[in-house]
Each structure stands twice: as C-alpha cells, then as structure tokens.
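Field reference: sequence -> structure
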Amino acid sequence: MRFTVPQFIEREAKIFGPFTFKQFVYIGVASAACFILYFSLPFSLFLLAAMVLMGGAAALGFLKIGGRGLPTIISNVLKFSLMPKMYVWKKKQDVVTIYQKKQPSSANTAEGEEDQMPLKIAEKSQLKKLSTQIETKSK
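Structure field:
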C-alpha cells in the first residue's frame, strides 16, 4: 500500500496519566475550588460542596450519552434553546391518478346493489428516493 490510513481517529490522546487534557482540566478546576472551599467553609458545607463539584467534574469529564460527551450535549442544548429557529414548509406536488371501475349494463346488476369500487390514488414512484440513496450511498 502506498498510504496508511490512520486508525482510531476519534480517540483523544492521554496527556496526564489516564486522563485526556479536557478531563484533567475539569478535575483540576474542581479540585482547586474544593481546596479553596476547605479553608473558607465549615467542614459539613465543604463536604456537600465538594461532592457536588467533584460529581459535576466527573460527569463533564467521563459521562457519555449516545457516544457524545456531556459538554457537547450541554452546548447543543444551549444552541438549540437560544438560537432563532426557521421553520420551512415545502408543499409536495404529487400527481394524483384516479381509476374508476367501468359500469356494467343495468340488466346484469340488482336494483339495490351498487357495485362501485372506491377511487384509488396511485402510489408515488420510488425511483427518486432510490436514486438519492444510490448517490449518497445510504440505506
């Protein structure tokens, strides 16, 4: 082979021991805040604040939902909530084909019986969808 294809390109490098740089920053900032709170709060409040801070830092650093990290999910939620939204309506122009059953002669049918078939709408062709799938190589 002429070129080597890189493998595991979605994996972040481990910089500080078993932690990536982002994980180290989250844990480090929470640890520094806990160090400051240890000297400024009573011990019972310090324990409560330390558990909340370290739990939040651990969640930011290690929690993944659907293969995405918690900071990514939080930023996506904020972007969706705060950004203006544009709703686009595209009217479909479907061709309607109507089929009717031919009326038999009145001598062959009974008086009270009406043998009419309800109108049917022909289904849309799947060629356009199939060509799009082939062009984009999707399922």
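Note: Residues 21-40 form the longest helix (20 residues).
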